[in-house]
Design brief:
The protein is α/β, with parallel strands linked by helices. The chain is 52% helix and 10% strand. Bound molecules: 5,6-dihydroxy-NADP (NZQ) and zinc ion (ZN).
Length: 406
């Protein structure tokens, strides 16, 4: 090897090494621990009796009755024949603390020490709060406001809506209807969750659209942030996005296809069970804004995200430029045009994807106007919050975002 080439070689190696260490610096330290046992597939509700510990005082929580129409309730009852348990019914979509206080009271009266949620994300989220409230003297809303449950009794789920990932994560989102507030708190993970894709056959087209939008947006919240932190997390996130894009139109045409619904169900779980966010920065501004729309107008969660996410991207496209370029190329095959054109196209195609699910993507289409924008923005300013990966989505930026969604 002659000296000049050695020199060049060395320079390249140093540049590569600096780049490499820069990227290492970019990946954040993390501890990964997801203890939920996932029990997936046809007929798996029958496994309930072997999954639930013996000798527990069990309370089963339900929503408004969908489980009695689609056979889930009968399957649960059959699996638990011979066991004693208490039932609590009536946890509503966007679970309300007012209802959950009643469940906590019932749980305390019956010395409940294990909870089983049978229903969608709302029933399970509500159950996560019941699990904390049962062993606490604090008011349930104060537990939510604290942001983190100190202690919870163990809980598990039979998940009937693929959307939230609640079946394999430690989060829960609770509504206080009297003040139209909706906040999240964190805590323990379900001990186990049973996911039988067949239970999704009874979902309406709108519920499926909202579930797909929710799962897709969960990935974007974790992916469309800082470039170059982890190739592995990027590829994993892109895998979920591509899968959702691929199955969405097929599910529309055939919502009772087992394999499609199995992919949908697992995609929703993987989108928010910590697997795609190891060591990376995250956004979540769209969710925070979406929660306000739900709290104020009752907009279904996934639908609120389909409206807000394109707006977040439009307003923050400079900050998110590099990741948007990567997303555009790898997800939508956008390779032509200037950077600005490619970024704009990626955002447009994102909005089109939500529309292709059958959801509207503009506030005006839902009869939501300036008054709400003003209200959400001043709520955020009053709370002094700033969301997003750079903590710059303040009340004022939120106003810009929502105005771009009109
Ligand atoms: O109450 P029932 O009668 O059971 O009916 C429900 C409800 O009306 C019905 N349903 C459930 N399974 C069904 C079914 N209908 C037919 N067939 C089935 N198999 O669906 C309706 C909506 O259910 P819900 O539980 O509200 O839906 P989803 O799972 O989308 O949960 C939404 C809630 O989760 C929160 C949202 O904010 C919202 O409050 N999220 C929770 C997260 C988490 N824990 O990590 C993250 C998410 O970003 C989200 O914020
Ligand atoms: Zn969500």
């Amino acid at each position: 090897m002659n000296p000049p080439s050695l020199h060049v070689h060395l320079k390249l190696w140093i540049a590569g090494f600096i780049n490499f260490t820069k990227q290492l610096k970019n990946m954040k330290n993390f501890i990964f621990h997801n203890p939920t046992q996932l029990v997936f597939g046809k007929g798996q509700i029958a496994k309930l009796s072997e999954l639930l510990p013996d000798n527990v005082n069990l309370m089963i929580t339900y929503g408004g009755g969908s489980v009695t129409k689609n056979g889930v309730y009968d399957q649960v009852k059959a699996a638990l024949r011979g066991r004693n348990y208490v039932e609590f019914w009536g946890i509503e979509p966007n679970p309300q603390v007012e209802t959950l206080r009643k469940a906590i009271h019932t749980g305390k009266l019956n010395n409940i020490d294990f909870l089983l949620a049978v229903g969608g994300g709302s029933v399970l989220d509500g159950t996560k709060l019941i699990a904390a409230g049962i062993i606490s003297e604090a008011d349930a809303w104060d537990i939510v406001l604290k942001g983190e449950a100190e202690k919870q009794i163990p809980f598990a789920s039979v998940m009937t809506v693929p959307a939230t990932g609640s079946e394999m994560n430690g989060g829960a989102v609770i509504t206080r209807s009297e003040t139209q507030e909706k906040f999240a708190f964190g805590g323990n993970y379900p001990v186990f969750s049973i996911l039988d894709p067949e239970v999704t056959y009874s979902l309406s087209a709108h519920q499926i659209a909202c579930g797909l939008a929710d799962a897709y947006t969960h990935v974007l919240e974790q992916y469309l942030t800082t470039p170059g932190q982890s190739r592995l997390m990027d590829r994993w996130a892109e895998g979920v996005l591509l899968s959702v894009i691929e199955i969405a139109p097929q599910i529309k045409a055939n919502p009772m296809n087992y394999d499609l619904m199995a992919d949908y169900m697992l995609a929703a779980t993987l989108a928010l069970n910590d697997f795609i966010r190891m060591g990376i920065t995250q956004d979540w501004a769209t969710h925070q804004i979406g929660h306000e729309l739900t709290a104020l107008h009752g907009t279904t969660h996934g639908h609120s995200l389909a409206i807000v996410m394109p707006g977040t991207l439009r307003v923050l496209k400079d900050q998110k430029k590099d990741k948007l370029l990567q997303y555009g190329e790898r997800i939508f095959g956008i390779t032509e045009g200037t950077e600005k054109e490619r970024v704009d196209k990626a955002i447009d195609m994102t909005e089109q994807f939500y529309r292709s699910l059958g959801l509207t993507t503009r506030l005006s289409e839902e009869g939501i106007g300036k008054e709400t924008i003003e209200k959400v923005s001043s709520r955020f300013n009053d709370r002094g919050v700033a969301f997003g990966e750079n903590r710059n989505v303040t009340g004022d930026v939120t106003s810009e975002i929502l105005n771009s969604c009109l």
